[in-house]
């Protein structure tokens, strides 16, 4: 009887100790998880992320401005080609093209070609049919290459999609206070900048293909301000992506490359 009592007491004691140990282990695990969940970025790091995001937003704005306008390239006839008081020029972008009729008297006397497009005159604008019926456009007896124009437009749309995805990642990183989403955001912005630059290159090749399709009408061509916006946006987006990469690192690259004198001594 007494032996059973002591055995039961001993077993109860062991069970009690085991219970306390298990509870302590669970409490420790919860504490570690709590510390991991409460790990937030500092105010200075959050400010740097907002500054880099502002740089990326500037690139996004320039991209949207360039994609939505039709001043990618200007094609101008010689101002005395028609032999009358007017001359014609054209300008177009990814989606739409315009043919303008200008007065020769308004053109700079030192300029040999018709233009620029900012001068007052009559304008006739139409959307391209690359995306609907698949027809090529004819501008001054020259035919466009729809495959190159479609490729330039698709690259621009893909870059815009990646910009939206990168912006969502940055918004989630700032709202949750964790730097985890900086790496996918940097990938999205860098790739979007590369695609924007590729879109400009493909569009330039489409312009050269247009000019080589017919030589009966002499044309002077020059890339316009929409391309300048898109090209600048590509560089800015790549810069913003690299800034997000630097901010996502667990250490400061500046301190690694240039350590303080106190730490060196």
From TrEMBL:
Superkingdom, taxonomy of origin: Eukaryota
InterPro entries on file: PMP22/EMP/MP20/Claudin
Major subcellular site: membrane
GO CC term, one of those recorded: L-type voltage-gated calcium channel complex
The entry's keywords: Membrane, Transmembrane, Transmembrane helix
Biological processes annotated in GO: regulation of calcium ion transmembrane transport via high voltage-gated calcium channel
Gene3D superfamilies: 1.20.140.150
Membrane topology: Multi-pass membrane protein
Localization per Swiss-Prot or TrEMBL: Membrane
MF annotations from Gene Ontology: calcium channel regulator activity
Membrane-crossing residue ranges in chain numbering: 51-73, 150-174, 186-211, 223-247
Presence of the UniProt keyword Phosphoprotein in the record: no
The protein's name: Voltage-dependent calcium channel gamma-6 subunit
């Amino acid at each position: 009887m007494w032996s059973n009592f002591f055995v039961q007491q001993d077993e109860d004691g062991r069970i009690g100790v085991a219970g306390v140990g298990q509870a302590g282990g669970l409490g420790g695990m919860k504490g570690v998880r709590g510390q991991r969940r409460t790990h937030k970025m500092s105010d200075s790091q959050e400010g740097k992320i907002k500054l880099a995001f502002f740089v990326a937003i500037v690139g996004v704005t320039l991209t949207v401005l360039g994609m939505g306008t039709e001043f990618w390239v200007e094609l101008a006839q010689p101002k005395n080609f028609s032999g009358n008081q007017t001359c014609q020029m054209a300008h177009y972008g990814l989606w739409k093209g315009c043919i303008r009729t200008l007065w020769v008297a308004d053109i700079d006397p030192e300029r040999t070609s018709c233009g620029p497009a900012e001068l007052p005159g009559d304008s006739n604008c139409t959307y391209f049919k690359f995306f609907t019926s698949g027809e090529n456009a004819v501008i001054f007896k020259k035919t466009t290459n729809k495959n190159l124009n479609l490729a330039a437009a698709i690259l621009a749309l893909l870059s815009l999609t990646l910009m939206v995805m990168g912006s969502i990642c940055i918004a989630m990183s700032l709202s949750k206070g964790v730097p985890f989403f900086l790496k996918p955001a940097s990938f999205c912005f860098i790739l979007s900048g590369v695609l924007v630059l590729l879109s400009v290159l493909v569009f330039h090749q489409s312009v050269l293909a247009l000019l080589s399709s017919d030589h009966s009408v002499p044309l002077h061509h020059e890339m316009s301000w929409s391309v300048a916006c898109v090209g600048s946006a590509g560089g800015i987006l790549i810069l913003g992506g690299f800034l997000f990469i630097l901010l996502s690192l667990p250490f400061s690259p500046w301190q690694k490359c240039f350590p303080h004198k106190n730490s060196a001594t």
